Amino acid sequence: MRLRSLLFVPGDRPERFDKALASGADAVILDLEDSVSAQNKPVARDAVHDFVTRRATDATLVIRINPLTTSACEDDLVALGNINPFAIMLPKAEGAASVRQLAGRLSSAVPILPIATETPAAIFEIGSYRDVASYLFGLTWGAEDLPAAIGAATAREADGRYTAPYELARSLVLFGAHAAAVPAIETVYPDFRDLDGLAAYAARARRDGFSGMMAIHPSQVEPINHAFTPDATEIAWAEKVVAAFATSPDTGVIQIDGRMLDLPHLKLAKRILEAGKLAHEG
């Protein structure tokens, strides 16, 4: 399954649910946490329950619940216990222990997508996700809650780049996801009007090894999908690399267009072809 774009929609705005599905996003995240006020959470639970009941069989729906340590989480799990979304997004996750705790409280085996960087303690647990990889469908991060938790003024430089602590958090999640052999999902780009900046941000994410990205507005979906879909030039290069190694199975190094390529390049080529295949099938 391709998961290039995952679009958030507030759980208390059911009139937006079908619009989110029509946006072209590979998955829709129905949010019960930050985008929903405390007084609206019961309404949001009902709306999400009804929508997932109707659409879970023909749409990729993820539900972001409230943090495990809150009473709102318990209410979420009770209200949603008899439905089967594609996955549950777990905010404020703190490593394998959080995943095991949530898995034990779910009424069925639903894959989990932890947000792995929202508390200081969470940073030190990122390597543990490989111990619970069978419960996961991916790993992602956020750059908003952690600065607030430690009293930082911002996570970004004036030009939009992350400051050093948050580049570290991003990198740890990227490596943590690959260590667990699950998709690494890039965090959101907050300025939904800046589509050029979004395109550059998403391209950087794919370059670095992320396989998809979260979105906060339907206008962001197409640029994200484009960034995470290999183009014809990439596909042609990958096919050439795979074919060259296939004709010389006993060698670890080949030459293509004046460049020496070894087995890591073959691995990259196969990843590109797999991503292209998933995009074509979608």
Q: How would you sum up this structure, described in words?
A:
With 282 residues, the protein is α/β, with parallel strands linked by helices. The chain has two domains: 223 residues, Alpha-Beta Barrel (TIM Barrel), CATH 3.20.20; 50 residues, no CATH class. It is 43% helix and 14% strand. The chain is built from eleven helices and ten strands. Strands 5-4-3-2-1-8-7-6 form an eight-stranded parallel sheet. Helix 3 links the parallel strand 3 and strand 4. The longest helix has 19 residues. The protein starts with a strand and ends with a helix.
**Strand content of the residues, in percent?**
5-15%
Under CATH, the topology of the largest domain is which? TIM Barrel
Category by helix and strand content:
alpha/beta
Largest sheet: 8 strands, parallel
Tally of separate domains: 2
Order of helices and strands: EHEHEHEHEHEHHEHEHHEEH
Residue stretches low in confidence (pLDDT < 50, at least 5 long) are: none
Please tell me the CATH architecture of the largest domain by its name. Answer: Alpha-Beta Barrel
Calculate Rg over CA atoms: 20 Å
Q: Average pLDDT value?
A: 92
Counted by DSSP, the helix tally is: 11
The strand order across the widest sheet is 5-4-3-2-1-8-7-6
Tell me roughly what share of residues is in helical segments.
40-55%
Shape: globular
Tell me the name of the CATH homologous superfamily of the largest domain: Phosphoenolpyruvate-binding domains
| Extended strand count | 10
CATH class of the largest domain: Alpha Beta
How far apart are the termini? 8 Å
